[in-house]
């Protein structure tokens, strides 16, 4: 397993470099040929038959932003994951991954390979690299990465002392705006990596129907917003306000100072007071979307909550209730429709794609019609979305919709909250078979 772990990690390294880039820890092949990151002298190539199996996986251009919030990108990910999941063992998976690595979008490749490793039983012990290790430019400004590379080039290969490049939380803003007081939390590597990983474990549209997936979509994001509110209160800011009027300007802009990839192309920025606009970005694989479409989806979800049921494509009612003994609970069904998972939603075309397209519309509000050929903003990538203050305003709105549903449900009873026959006798901490004793002054 240790060898499998090492080989898998090499497939994630430096995603923008070719696979045949020489590594010092990979032996050269016969006749002095270059040892590759794949571990041998040559990298397997993608045949025409392989390309036919990839489906839409080649539709996302290399070097561009891969956004799991965009349905066409999710479909590309689904096809690439299906190709990799056909592998019957670790060796086959490494062969398949090496074939597609230089053919598909780099972020899409990383997502699909990570998804495959997570969902293959025989690879459950393989440790995935943190997304910050694979794509540091999504967390660290390019100028700091350049400094790091310069220092590495100056350092002898035999050196063992870690190199440290100081990088503060003040690189993206000043103290002039109150919202910047909590930038330390929004731009934390750990919380952004967690968000990316959560959407990898509980993805929409990938035929993953984990227990309580819809409810956990609400719960996890609600917990992040609750913690964000606590951080705000601790620095004398009010709790975050929900983004519910999509025709008013967004007061706070965001300038990430980060790059989409190692080419130096920056993420899109949002000026203070930017309005949402009807989206016209088919260059990014997005169908035209109007604000009125979003408002209609919201209205239909709210109607379903207050009526107590949703409709499927046949017009049949699906009850929204948590008091069920079989089937899905209502909060799960609502979560599947809101996120939205087009394969689990009761009626995807009717209830829409509100959560995901909210992210996309916010990420393109600075260039909604591609007039300036700007990249999307950080709200379009699950690895960077939490950096933007508007993420929390958007998810406060999402939370309030779920809270509206919870108000329609009866309160918990004692039977719901107790475990008959279970008695808590005592609580303690045991270490080395010895009970710890707490002594206070």
Automatic annotation (TrEMBL):
GO cellular component, one term: extracellular region
UniProt keyword terms in alphabetical order: Copper, Disulfide bond, Metal-binding, Oxidoreductase
Domain Tyrosinase copper-binding positions: 388-399
Pfam families, alphabetized: Hemocyanin_M, Hemocyanin_N
Entry superkingdom: Eukaryota
EC id: 1.14.18.-
One GO MF term: oxidoreductase activity
Chain segments annotated as transmembrane: none
Protein's UniProt name: Prophenoloxidase
Originating organism: Procambarus clarkii
Gene of this entry: proPo
């Amino acid at each position: 397993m240790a060898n499998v772990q090492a080989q898998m990690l090499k497939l994630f390294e430096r995603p923008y470099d070719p696979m045949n880039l020489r590594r010092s820890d990979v032996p050269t092949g016969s006749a002095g040929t270059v040892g590759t990151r794949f571990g041998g002298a040559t990298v397997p190539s993608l045949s025409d038959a392989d390309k036919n199996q990839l489906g839409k996986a080649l539709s996302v251009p290399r070097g561009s932003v891969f956004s799991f919030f965009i349905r066409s990108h999710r479909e590309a990910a689904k096809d690439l994951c299906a190709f990799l999941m056909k592998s019957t063992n670790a060796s086959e998976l490494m062969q398949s991954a090496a074939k597609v690595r230089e053919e598909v979008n780099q972020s899409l490749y990383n997502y699909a390979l990570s998804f495959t490793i997570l969902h293959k039983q025989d690879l459950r012990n393989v440790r995935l690299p943190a997304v910050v290790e694979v794509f540091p430019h999504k967390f660290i400004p390019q100028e700091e990465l350049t400094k790091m590379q310069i220092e590495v080039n100056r350092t002898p290969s035999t050196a063992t002392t870690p190199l440290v490049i100081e990088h503060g939380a003040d690189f993206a803003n000043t103290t002039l705006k109150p919202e910047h007081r909590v930038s330390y939390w929004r731009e934390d590597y750990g919380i952004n990596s967690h968000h990316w990983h959560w959407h990898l474990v509980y993805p929409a549209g990938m035929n993953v129907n984990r227990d309580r997936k819809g409810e956990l979509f609400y719960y996890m994001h609600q917990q992040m917003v609750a913690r964000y509110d606590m951080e705000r209160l601790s620095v004398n800011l009010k709790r975050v306000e929900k983004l519910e009027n999509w025709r008013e300007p967004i007061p706070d802009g965001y300038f990430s100072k980060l790059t989409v990839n190692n080419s130096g192309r920056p993420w899109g920025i949002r000026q203070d007071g930017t309005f949402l606009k009807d989206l016209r970005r088919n260059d990014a694989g997005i169908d035209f979307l109007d604000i009125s479409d979003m408002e209609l989806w919201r209205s239909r979800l709210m109607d379903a909550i207050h009526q107590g049921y949703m409709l499927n494509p046949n017009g049949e009612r699906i009850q929204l209730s948590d008091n069920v003994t079989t089937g899905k609970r209502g909060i799960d069904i609502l979560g599947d429709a809101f996120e939205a998972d087009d394969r689990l939603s009761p009626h995807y075309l009717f209830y829409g794609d509100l959560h995901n397209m909210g992210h996309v519309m916010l990420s393109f509000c600075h260039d909604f019609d591609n007039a300036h050929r700007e990249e999307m903003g950080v709200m379009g990538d699950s690895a960077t979305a939490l950096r933007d203050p508007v993420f929390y305003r958007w998810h406060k709105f999402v939370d309030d919709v779920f809270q509206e549903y919870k108000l329609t449900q009866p309160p918990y009873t004692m039977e719901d909250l107790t475990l008959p026959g279970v008695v808590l006798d005592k609580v303690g901490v045991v270490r080395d078979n010895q009970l710890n004793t707490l002594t206070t002054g």
